[in-house]
Specification:
This protein is α/β, with parallel strands linked by helices and about 160 residues long. The protein contains three helices and seven strands, in the order E-H-H-E-E-E-E-H-E-E. It has helices at about 15-45, 50-75, 125-130; strands spanning about 10, 80, 95-100, 100-110, 120, 140-145, 150-160. It starts with 9 loop residues before the first strand and ends with a strand.
């Protein structure tokens, strides 16, 4: 199975793919219709230069179109299926890390796939990049935003349950 290249790959479970697809469909149909009606109604209220309803509707339209673009991008590059248990830290895995002596558990992947009550570690983040492909027991470090290097040990990498 070939995977799209680049770091815009999002690993999605079939359930998450379905959920995002239906959200996209809903936004493109019902959502767009609702917002254009709201803009039409607000226009009828007269002068659109100081019309809060019009501003709010246009603002919602902008945010909705941004979400539509984001969903289209995610779904276009999504790899659907359960992550393979390769024994290394990869997208869709739960990783247990020891960072500067503290133990932390993260879901390695995208916010769209977040597991309730677990922090998401983005694959684009410095720590996400540093942990990718590591095996349990490996020690490495990653640069913090302030430029310090923190020691990290990968304790465990398991597929999400």
């Amino acid at each position: 199975m070939s995977h799209p290249t680049g770091d815009r790959v999002t690993y999605l479970t079939p359930q998450a793919y379905e959920r995002l697809s239906s959200e996209l469909e809903e936004l493109k149909t019902v959502g767009r219709e609702r917002v254009s009606q709201a803009i039409g109604v607000a226009r009828e209220h007269g002068d659109i230069r100081e019309n809060a309803d019009y501003d709010a509707a246009k603002n919602e339209q902008g945010m909705m179109e941004a979400r539509i673009r984001q969903l289209e991008e995610i779904l276009r590059s999504a790899v659907v299926g359960e992550p393979r248990d390769t024994g290394t830290a990869g997208p869709g895995m739960v990783v247990r890390l020891e960072i500067a002596g503290d133990e932390e558990i993260y879901f390695l992947g995208s916010r769209e796939e977040a597991i309730d009550g677990m922090d998401v570690l983005s694959l684009q983040s410095p720590l996400g990049q540093a942990v990718l492909g590591r095996k349990p027991g490996e020690e490495f470090s990653y640069p913090t935003p302030t430029g310090r290097k923190l020691p990290v040990k990968l304790l465990e990498a398991t597929p999400r349950r």
